[in-house]
Design brief:
With 170 residues, this protein is an alpha/beta fold. The protein has a single domain, classed as Vaccinia Virus protein VP39 (Rossmann fold), CATH 3.40.50. It contains six helices and seven strands; from the N terminus they run E-H-E-H-E-H-E-H-E-H-E-H-E. Helix 1 packs parallel to helix 2.
Length: 170
């Protein structure tokens, strides 16, 4: 399982603790978050989490073999709400194509956001990727359960609804 953008790592550590059989590779660029996640891993004696610092596209291109991932989680990526910044959003067709090329035959992509227009864009991008199909999956499956993230709490406090999008590789 690849987790892209784990923030301060609390949700990543909690989910890894709930499912110790699931191996997690967590990547982010935020040094304080990486340090915090490493601390949480140590405190909880987690052996199923590895942490990387850097750009997810570079990792996918250079470090992850094709068809090798069971799944990917990207929870609350930066929505870049101003229209002129939408080009900076992570979930774009070229990135999703790269990501899907790294998924195994039954791999999945699980995205979450509290920005309705970003949810619409994500859905559109995922719907147009020919190797993905919207999954009608029970969110209670261990690999799909997620705990509330710090970004989710902030969004909910502002009255934002959360959209979870789960797609499987065809």
């Amino acid at each position: 399982m690849l987790e892209i953008g784990f923030g301060m790592g609390e949700a990543t550590a909690a989910m890894a603790g709930h499912d110790p059989k699931l191996g997690v590779l967590a990547i982010d660029v935020h040094r304080p978050g990486i340090v915090r996640l490493l601390s949480l891993i140590d405190e909880a004696h987690l052996t199923n989490v590895r942490v990387a610092r850097g750009d997810a596209s570079d990792l996918l291109t250079r470090g992850i073999p094709q068809s090798s991932l069971a799944g990917t989680r990207i929870f609350f990526p930066d929505p870049w709400p101003k229209a002129r910044h939408h080009k900076r959003r992570l979930i774009k067709p070229d990135f999703v194509a790269l990501l899907v090329s790294r998924l195994g035959p039954v791999g999945f992509v699980h995205l979450a956001t509290d920005w309705p227009d970003y949810a619409d864009q994500m859905r559109s991008v995922l719907d147009t990727e020919p190797r993905l199909v919207h999954a009608d999956i029970n969110l209670r499956a261990p690999s799909l359960q997620r705990v509330e993230t710090a970004y989710e709490r902030i969004g909910r406090a502002k009255g934002h609804d959360v959209t979870d999008l789960i797609y499987e590789r065809r």
